[in-house]
Amino acid sequence: MKVLSVVGARPQLVKLAPVAAAFADTGHRHVIVHTGQHYDAALSDVFFSGLAIPAPDVHLGIGSGSHGAQTGAALAALDPVLAEQRPDWVLVYGDTNSTLAGALAAVKLRLPVAHLEAGLRSFNRRMPEEHNRVLTDHCADLLLAPTREAVRLLAAEGLGARTRLAGDVMADICLRIRDAVLAGEHPPPALPAGVPPEGPFLLATLHRPDNTDDPARLDALIGALAALPLPVALPAHPRLTARAGEYGIDLARGSVRVGAPLPYADLVGAVLASAGVVTDSGGLQKEAFLLGRVCTTIRPETEWVETLEGGWNLLVPDPHGIPVERWGRLAARPAPPGPRPAPYGDGRAAHRVVRLLEAAVPALAS
Ligand code: UD1
């Protein structure tokens, strides 16, 4: 079997790591195509080197652009590559513009498409990721769902026959890197200057357009982080740095200490060293949960609803509207008592993905 993975943005590289490792244990051919959606070394190269992912077989170098231009550029650039490679499966990951481009490029060539992390929904149509997920799920041939909730949502959209529960490959990599970090196999995380490495501190990230692209909202959110009672480590995504610069918003104020985006092992180490996480990232909400740290999510909804159980994750879309002391107690709240549920699988999802792809090849051929 020949499987061609299309990736392009940072979270997809994290998901690719366990999948590439699972393929390496088989006789299957695994081709990696990087669209180039993310191109800064801190968002791309460090994930290949840090997570021991084989270098991409093909790099399309599409770069940044409006959503339409970026998706279109990736679609056009993928067309000849897929036509030449003719894999048994095109495997697309998550919900970025590269995901949708990969799925569309494949169906236009009548190549079978499998969607890893299928069935997540925010039901927020303002999010570009929501369109990308829904459209990808509806054109894919095999839907690899990470959770039972995702299976349920796909069935509700009439996609049950194409759906398989695979488990969450992000749990595979997160738990593996956690074990390595705890075993002292990685140096301590490179935290922004002024953050005490032994804690206590909070780890924050902001990158969603809804939070970064309106100057008044961005200023209010940074103000809320600045008012927190603990130092706040803020590894800043390029979008956040660019928007803050454009709007003349100072990120490094009050409690906030700004740093560069973190490589994956540093991120896992930083979550483990933190007293809690404040974020609008989907992946980081789940990583906090998997690593046993409370998370406060600066969004009105989450796709990872399991993290809300027991109060591990709290949705706080407008922290600046909350009295400052209450906001501080909330973001730095203690971990909920009792055992944490384990809805994201057993850390072996990537191997299951390979088996599900193997099992579905004959069905497609017949
Ligand atoms: C993308 C995904 C989002 C994911 C995020 C992870 C879409 C629609 N969004 O958002 O789901 O959570 O990746 O990081 O696909 N930039 C750089 N260097 C880079 C890449 C981007 O400076 O290597 C800057 C550019 O100014 C660019 C902006 O960041 O315009 C946004 O990049 P883009 O890939 O369009 O979306 P993200 O916000 O990263």
UniProtKB/TrEMBL annotation:
Pfam families: Epimerase_2 (PF02350)
SUPFAM superfamilies attached to this UniProt entry: UDP-Glycosyltransferase/glycogen phosphorylase (SSF53756)
Domain (UDP-N-acetylglucosamine 2-epimerase) ranges: 27-358
Record's keyword terms, sorted: Isomerase
The organism's place on the tree of life at top rank: Bacteria
Similarity annotation: Belongs to the UDP-N-acetylglucosamine 2-epimerase family.
NCBIfam families in alphabetical order: wecB (TIGR00236)
Protein name: UDP-N-acetylglucosamine 2-epimerase (Non-hydrolyzing)
Organism: Streptomyces yaizuensis
Taxonomic placement: Bacteria, Bacillati, Actinomycetota, Actinomycetes, Kitasatosporales
Underlying gene: wecB
